[in-house]
Task: structure prediction
Amino acid sequence: METQENYPMPRIGDMAPDFKAKTSRGDIQFSEFIKGKWTLLFSHPADFTPVCTTEMSGFALKSKDFEKMNTKLIGLSIDSINSHIAWIEDVREKMGILMDFPIIADIDMKVAKLYGMLQPGESETAAVRAVFFIDPKGKIRLIMYYPLNVGRNMDEIIRALQALQTADEHKVALPLNWHPGDKVIVPAPTTVEALEERLKAKDLEMPTFYLAKKKL
Result:
C-alpha cells in the first residue's frame, strides 16, 4: 500500500523540481521552460472529463492575460499524448476554445509524484487539481490544491498571481481580499527610529503602529 511518504510535496520557498517530459507542444526540460518567467504548473485528473474541460478551457480563455503578466502556462494529467491531442481538438471543435499551452503526458506519473499531485486518500491513479506558482528564479511561491470534484477559481488564481508580483515589485504585503488598486501593507518598523518616522507619515492609513496601509 502506498503511503504519504511515497508522494513528497514541494513546499513554498523550495526550488521547483526539474524534469524532462513529453507535452502536447513537444518535449521540454522544465528548468529551461520556466527560465525568466512566472509559471503556473497545474494538474487535472483526466482528459475528456467535465470539470477538467471547464478548467482547462478557463486557462485557455485567459492565456493572453497571463501572457501580459509575463506568465507561462503548463498543464499535466496522467494521460497519453494521443489523448491530449484528441481532447484539445475535441474542445476546439465543440466549444471553439484552443488549449494552446503545453499539457504534460505523465503516463508514468513521475511528475505527479515529484510534485505531490497524487494523494492516496483522493486517488492513486489521478492527479488532484494542483496549481504551483513559480517565480522567474524557479522558486515555488504559492501552492493551491483542490479535490477531484471541485473546480478551481480562475479569478483567485489571477488575483494571487497579481498579489505575488505586486509584493515583489513594491516590497509590500497584501491584506485580506486585496485586489489591484487597493491599498497595500507597509512592512512594520524594526527600530524605534523607523517607528518615529512612521508616526510622522502623512500618506499612511494607520489604525495601529504595526498595521499601516498606503496607495501605490
Observations:
- Residues 154-170 form the longest helix (17 residues).
- The radius of gyration is 20 Å.
